[in-house]
Amino acid sequence: MSATTKGTFVITGASSGIGALYADRLARRGHDLVLVARSEDRLRALANRLEQETGRHVGVLVADLGDKAGVAKVEAALKADKSIIGLVNNAGLGATAPLLQSSVEAMEAMIDLNVTALTRLTYAVAPGLVERGGGTIINIASVVAIAPELLNGVYGGSKAFVLAFSQSLQHELADKNIRVQAVLPGATATDFWAIAGKPVEQLPQAIVMSAEDMVDASLAGLDQGEVVTIPALPEVADWNAYENARMALAPQLSRNQPAVRYRVRKIDAA
Ligand code: NAP
């Protein structure tokens, strides 16, 4: 831990793209870091650069979060390191192919990383943050969380989980001084697209944001106290209207009688 640190952030998927940008920005904000991913060389190169440029301490944890042993290694680090004040759950995998062209094994691997690892790491970090009086959990979801028709359905479902889990976490932990933010990026110029089966160059450039702009906007949303940040959405009022409509449904969703429109059969039988 460096002498003047503002506390340590753990960032998963920090070897490239969005995660590497979070590492850069959080180091410049005065945080020590632990960078997690599989590519040791890329993590070490980033850690060395950030240490030189910012004077922060930047540790590297090489782990495959698609694998139980890899997740357990990071969970152990999250539980042991008392300097940790934040977690960026960013490591994730996408897919663009529809169901009939996808292998279910690849879909399961995506759930392991996008859902299971993110959940386990959150469970590993949260009690320590509460014990130490507070902290921050940033979960990288996607706009497909609310627009699942756009890409592969399991990817959309995994990100809908991240959004719902984050909203629930915020509900449960806000009074314990834990900040939770779900970030819903639209298309962002990273390796993600090539890995998911469609290089980013094939997308209309009008819908693609740079990773730098995406991360800077998300951190601005964090600073503004947002629980959900959609970097590209022009009017926050549109998101608020969507959320208000959802909240208005809540008191009507569980009742002792079916809705009148579903009572047709009973009326027929009488
Ligand atoms: P990226 O450049 O491909 O980065 C993905 C990161 O996750 C890399 O650091 C990768 O590192 C790491 N990772 C992948 N599999 C891993 C595993 N099994 N274990 C540990 N780390 C693993 O893509 P990105 O765009 O920055 O993606 C970051 C997050 O943003 C993802 O959750 C993605 O779903 C989300 N997102 C992206 C977009 C977009 O358009 N780019 C839009 C919405 C949401 P290693 O390969 O070294 O392990």
Give structural notes.
The protein has 270 residues and is α/β, with parallel strands linked by helices. The chain has one domain: 3-Layer(aba) Sandwich (Rossmann fold). It has nine helices and nine strands. It has helices spanning 17-28, 40-54, 68-80, 104-131, 153-173, 192-196, 211-223, 236-249, 264-269, and strands at 8-12, 32-37, 58-62, 84-89, 135-140, 178-183, 188-189, 209-210, 228-229. The chain has a seven-stranded parallel beta sheet, sandwiched between helices. α2 (40-54) links the parallel β2 and β3. It is globular and about 70 Å long. The N and C termini lie far apart (75 Å). The chain binds NADP nicotinamide-adenine-dinucleotide phosphate. NADP nicotinamide-adenine-dinucleotide phosphate binds at residues 13-19, 37-39, 64-66, 90-94, 113, 140, 142, 185, 187-188, 190-192, 195.
Features:
binds NADP nicotinamide-adenine-dinucleotide phosphate; 9 strands; Rossmann fold; alpha/beta; globular; single chain; 270 residues; two-stranded parallel ribbon; seven-stranded parallel β-sheet
CATH class: Alpha Beta
* Spans where pLDDT lies below 50 across 5 or more residues: none
Mean pLDDT, to the nearest integer, reads 96
Q: End-to-end span in angstroms?
A: 75 Å
Strand-residue proportion? 5-15%
Extended strand count? 9
Fraction of residues in helix: 40-55%
Number of domains: 1
What is the overall number of helices? 9
- Strand line-up in the sheet with most strands: 3-2-1-4-5-6-9
Largest sheet descriptor: 7 strands, parallel
